[in-house]
Each structure stands twice: as C-alpha cells, then as structure tokens.
Amino acid sequence: MTDTANLGLPCIEGNQAQKHVTHNDALRILDTLVQLAVLDRDLPTPPGSPAEGQRWIVKAAGTGAWAGHNNAIAAWQDGAWQFSAPQLGWVAFVADEGTLVVWNGSAWGDFFSTVTSLQNLSMLGVGTTADSTNRISAKLNNALWAAQTVAEGGDGNLLYKMSKESTAKTVSLLMQENYSGRAEIGLTGDDDFHFKVSPDGTTWFEGIKIAAATGRVTFPNTTLSAGRETLTANRTYYVRTDGSDANNGLANTSGGAFLTIQKAIDTAKQHDLCGFAVTIQVATGTYTVGINVTAPFLGGDVTVQGDITTPSNVIISVSGTHCVQVSSKAALTLGGFKLVSSSGHGIFATADAVVTVSGKMEFGACSSGNHLNAMTSVINVGADYTISGSAANHVYAADGGIINDYLRTVTITGTPAFSGSFAQGTRLGIILMFSNTFSGSATGSRYNVNNNAVMYTAGATLPGNAVGTTSFGGQYN
After folding, report:
1. Can you tell me the distance from the alpha carbon of 12 to that of 28, in angstroms, rounded to the nearest whole number?
2. If you placed Cys at 396, which of 232, 265, 363, 370 could pair as Cys (CB 3.0 to 4.6 Å)?
3. Quick one: CA dihedral 244, 334, 280, 338, positive or negative?
C-alpha cells in the first residue's frame, strides 16, 4: 500500500477489498493534522482519560503507549493512539501556552523566532490596538533598542532615524500625561530644534531653540526659564512716563515702552549681548525710580540715554536713594539727564564699577550727597555738563576711587553751595580735573585733599569762595 509523501495518508490500491477502511484511516490522519492544535507539548506520558480527537506533542522521552514516538503528534482516535511523525515546516498551535510552534527538522521551536521579515504591514499593535492615527501602537512598561554588535554582523552603532517631508512639516518626540501633551522636542514647523513644555496640552511655552542655520542657542521664553536670550544685533529699549513695565520695551509707544529705567536695566541683564550694544532710550519727563546696576552685563555694553541736547528735559528725581548706582564690577554709560536726589548721590560708583558719562548732563540738588562719588571705582566724564544744584561735594573720590573730569566745559547756574567742598579726595582717591573751563560761581571750599589722596588741576582755580585744604599726605596740584 502506498502513502502520500507529506501527510502519510494511505492510498486505496486497485481492486482493494474493504476500501472504506483505508479511506477512513486517511480521514483520521487529515482530522488530526489539518488545522493542527495540540493541548500540550510537555507530557512524556499519555493522559489518563483522553477525549476523542484530542492531540498532544509527545515530549521526549515518551513512555507507556507513547514510547518510541518522541516529538510525534499523538491523537486519540477510536479508542486508540494514532501517531504522526512531524515533517519540516509543520506548524501547531499549543493551547496551554497560547503560541505557535514549528518543526525545524529536529525539534519543535517557537514559530515567531523563525520569522525574519514582515513587510508592508498596514498596522501593528503590541499589547493594545493600533488605529488609523496611531498605526503602530504599544502598551508596555519597558522598551529596548540595542545596537547590533560587530560580532553579530553589525557595526556596533545605533541610529534612530525620523524623517519629515519638508521644512514646514513636524517631526518630534511628544511626551504626554494621560494622552495630553506636556513636553515636545523636535523640528516643529521649521528646521530649528525646539524644546517646548505645556501645563495642559493646549498652551505651550518654548524654553530652548537651536537655530539650524547657525547652531546658536536661544531661550525664547526668558520669563519662564533661567536661560538668556542671545542678541544677534544691537537693540534699543524705550522708556516713557506713559509706558508700562508689563510691556516688552521694544517700541517707542505707550503700549510698547517700559515705565521705569530700572525695568530696562533688568531686562538687559537677562541677555547675552554677544558683542552687541543695548541702548536704553528715555523719553522726556520726570522719573522717580533711579538706576541700580548690581552686576556686570554679559558680553556687551549698555548705554542709558536721555536728551543729550537739553538734559533738563529728562529728570531722574529720587528720594532716599541715589539717582544712579553702579557696583560690583559693573559698567554703565549714560548721558542726557538731570539728576536730583534729596538724600543720595547723583552718580555713585562703588566696588570696582566703571561709569562713563558720554552725553551732556545736568547735576541738580543732591543736598546731602555728592554729584559724582567714586569709591574703589572709576567715573569717566566724557561730555560737558551743567551744575544747577547744591551738594555736599561736586566730585568725591575715596578708597582708591578715580574721577576723570578734565577738558570739559562746566556751566554753573544759580550759585550752588557745597557744604564739604567742590572737589574732595580721601584715602588714596584720585581726581583729575585739569584744562576745564568753568563759568558761573559757587560757594564753599574749592577742594579738600587728605589721607594720601591726589588731585591734579594743573594750577587751575576750582569753583568756590573759600580756599582749599590738604592734610594727612593729601597732594594738590
């Protein structure tokens, strides 16, 4: 009798008697092997009470009725065991494991480990259901991507690639909370690299941007991050008496300008000037909040400018503090202001600061302070100016402070009084006040130089109605 090549089905011979027996045997084998599903593949011993048609894969080494049938399909048919030896490529579903196994010619192995290529799938869901929007979906707790090593035929590297169609499209990594966006990293609408966050999935704040064209890093939302905006050009901030510190300061309008000069100073301090200059342009009016610079600006110069033609149009008038204070190695340039303080200095430079007067100024009343006060710092007067108010001293240099106030035209109006002296140097202070032209008059001592301070006037007569004095090593020339 001849059997079929693949399933071993018995064939009916010509002139065979009882053909139905052969035919029924073939049907039983088909019933066993077609749509093959076994209950278990881990039993070497037959179960005690098998049901008709149930099938197992015999685990080596088989015993009892299964002896000698290792790895075969054992089917209970008509009260007896029927065995089918597996052929290469046979696939069986193992019910108790919920998996498919395949015969590789010598053993039953995991079917999916033999699958080396899945092409053109329309969807793939792992632990969840994919849909038309999320055509690949996975619900899991950990995911691993590992580089194929050189020993495995790879190069040891791992590149994760994502590509968008064009510049205006988006390719990004979106991180969500309960399916609502909270952070996004990527090329969102252009080719710059963006870092964004959101409190609710609707309102987004951009914290960092890296420009594709230059590689420059900027911090667009400086109010919400510790980062600095990096300037790419000179910038002007505007200050007006009808402005608001809630504005951005970039337009010379009531809806664009700042209200206080200090707000503009604080804004400039947040930037990396990157070699560019910031000008703070202050409009006509009286400002009752002064200027206080407590740290150096990063990477560039800042100038505060009022009306350099008529400084009296832009007045800084303060009480209980200084009009301009610069400290802690900071530097500031200013001009075009009238300075008035009821109990402080007009310009106070301290702790290694540098202040440069670049435009015409007017020094009004600073009755209990000095117009110019330099302590361990430098004040450079680079423009002509007017004195219209009284002060303790017009210039005062102490503790190694230096005031460079020479080659200037100084206009004095209203006969101001100086309760200390017009110019005072003490404790190694240095005052250079030569080749100046003074018009008008003042009352008080012309100078007071003491404690090894030095004042150089090249023999000029300073304003005042009383002779000056030197003491304790002070030098005056």
Report:
1. 15
2. 370
3. positive
